[in-house]
Amino acid sequence: MWTDIEIEKLFRRYKYNKSVLELSEPSMTSQLQLDKVSGGSIESKVEMVAVRRAQAEIELKMVNACLQTMNQDEKEFVNLRYFEDYDMKIVARCIKCCKRDTYRLRRKVLTKSKKLLNITTT
Fold it and tell me: Structural domain of residue 80, as residue ranges?
């Protein structure tokens, strides 16, 4: 079962995960496949890059699936709060609503995401 904190961490890692996919070389992960098939040894760095890349891909797909279920206000909240790492006061100002409504929007985003992630990961 996903918790609010785990979902928020997942959203906050979005930019990092995108950079992992952009910076890690696919040729390194394909070399890993060749090494496994040919019975050769796997360098720990190559294996680590492949695992990190695979984890980043999975997490990006999970976040994108959550974003697809959200309306424009919810997406804007996720972008400002988690991707841009603004605090709630600034988020409230940016989306032109009071702080209380911003917390309600947060609750709505987390509830929606939790329902989706708990369905898809069980």
Answer: 4-120
pTM of the predicted structure, to 2 decimals: 0.80
Render pLDDT for 81-121 as a digit per residue (tens, 0 to 9).
999 999 999 999 999 999 999 999 999 999 999 999 988 77
* Euclidean distance between CA atoms 53 and 48, whole angstroms: 8
- The residue assigned the tokens 């680590």 is 48
Based on the structure, what is the number of domains in the chain? Answer: 1
